[in-house]
């Protein structure tokens, strides 16, 4: 962990809690893709960069989740670098309370106000203003609405648009905001022609199709399980409880919000696809598979 690994030519990455891309575009000047989870993480990443006497001039964020932008303050204070994200993601970087608020759907309790979920507020510029030669922005919505990837030469930095196999095997229901666009994004990624892909929480991958299919199969399995559960009318709480049981997940306050939020997104997707229907009875909203009604 935490060493500079060359991918090709002047493009590197630093594996860590969240992998960080390093593009050495001129002499000792580098652009980072994402910047670690918090100040401690950023310091360790910076030690690796300092060994090469690298100076950070810009940070390109894939999205505004705390584990991707939490180190931003540290790097901005040290290097006075510019940080870019899409406008939607900027709102989260500049107003970090939004992330636990979105996950919980109300004022988040203290257990959710931890560095992994709530970063320190930091400045961020509209990605449309980014003019770094050789960097192409690729829209990859689904995990979040404004999620992007970056292509530098023939290397892709995909952020959380693709999950690693180990994470999928463990989490089963990994965080997604918009299931429909995520499925479209997976098909889009499957057509990439390149040398290698850096995902934020996986080892360097040269076989993107395998990972795309693995991600897609798990999403389709979650959809299958929800539809099976909704053979009979169930409340959202029941769907969450039954899915946790199906996948043998451990319930706690953070998981309830993070996974619960993703399950609500699955329910929205199935409702929009006209596969499930709400039934309101005795002041409770139930969901049921349409063909079973
Ligand atoms: Zn994320």
Keywords summarizing the entry:
293 residues; alpha/beta; Metallo-beta-lactamase, Chain A; Arc Repressor Mutant, subunit A; 2 domains; 7-stranded mixed beta sheet; 4-stranded mixed beta sheet; 14 strands; 38% helix; globular; binds zinc ion
The number of domains: 2
Measured on Cα atoms, how large is the radius of gyration? Answer: 20 Å
Which strand order does the major sheet show?
A: 1-2-3-4-5-6-7
CATH superfamily of the largest domain: Ribonuclease Z/Hydroxyacylglutathione hydrolase-like
Uncertain runs with pLDDT below 50, 5 residues or more? none
Largest sheet: 7 strands, mixed
What CATH calls the topology of the largest domain is: Metallo-beta-lactamase, Chain A
User: Care to count the β-strands?
Assistant: 14
Distance between the termini: 52 Å
CATH class of the largest domain: Alpha Beta
- Based on secondary structure, the structural category is alpha/beta
Q: Share of helix among residues?
A: 25-40%
Average pLDDT rating: 96
Q: Estimate what percentage of residues fall within beta strands.
A: 15-25%
Bound molecules: zinc ion
Write the layout of secondary structure elements.
Blueprint: E1 5-8, E2 11-14, E3 20-26, E4 29-33, H1 39-51, E5 55-60, H2 66-69, H3 72-79, E6 82-85, H4 87-94, H5 98-104, E7 125-126, E8 135-139, E9 148-152, E10 155-159, H6 165-171, H7 179-190, E11 196-199, H8 208-229, E12 234-235, H9 236-246, H10 253-272, E13 276-281, E14 284-289
Parallel strand pairs: 4-5, 5-6, 6-7, 10-11
Antiparallel strand pairs: 1-2, 2-3, 3-4, 8-9, 9-10, 12-14, 13-14
Helix pairs in contact: 1-3, 5-10, 7-8, 8-9, 9-10
The structure holds zinc ion.
């Amino acid at each position: 962990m935490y060493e500079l690994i060359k991918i090709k030519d002047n493009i590197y990455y630093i594996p860590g809690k969240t992998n960080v891309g390093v593009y050495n575009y001129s002499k000792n000047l580098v652009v980072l893709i994402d910047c670690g989870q918090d100040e401690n993480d950023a310091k360790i990443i910076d030690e690796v960069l300092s060994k090469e006497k690298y100076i950070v001039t810009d940070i390109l964020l894939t999205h505004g989740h705390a584990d991707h932008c939490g180190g931003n303050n540290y790097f901005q204070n040290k290097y006075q670098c510019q940080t870019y994200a899409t406008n939607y993601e900027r709102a989260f970087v500049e107003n970090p309370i939004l992330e636990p608020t979105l996950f919980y759907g109300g004022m988040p309790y203290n257990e959710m106000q931890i560095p992994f979920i709530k970063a320190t507020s930091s400045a961020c510029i509209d990605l449309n203003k980014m003019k770094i030669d050789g960097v192409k922005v690729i829209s990859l919505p689904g995990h979040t609405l404004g999620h992007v990837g970056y292509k530098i030469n023939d290397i892709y930095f995909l952020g959380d648009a693709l999950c690693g196999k180990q994470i999928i095997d463990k989490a089963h229901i990994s965080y997604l905001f918009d299931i429909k666009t995520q499925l479209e994004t997976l098909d889009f990624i499957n057509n990439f022609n390149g040398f290698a892909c850096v995902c934020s929480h996986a080892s360097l991958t040269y076989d993107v199709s395998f990972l795309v299919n693995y991600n897609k199969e798990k999403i389709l399995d979650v959809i299958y399980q929800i539809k099976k559960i909704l053979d009979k009318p169930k409340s959202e709480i029941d769907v969450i409880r039954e899915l946790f049981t199906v996948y043998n997940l451990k319930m706690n306050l953070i998981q309830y919000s993070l996974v619960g939020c993703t399950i609500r997104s699955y329910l929205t997707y199935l409702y929009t696809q006209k596969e499930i229907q709400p039934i309101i009875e005795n002041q409770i909203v139930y969901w049921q598979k349409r063909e079973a009604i």
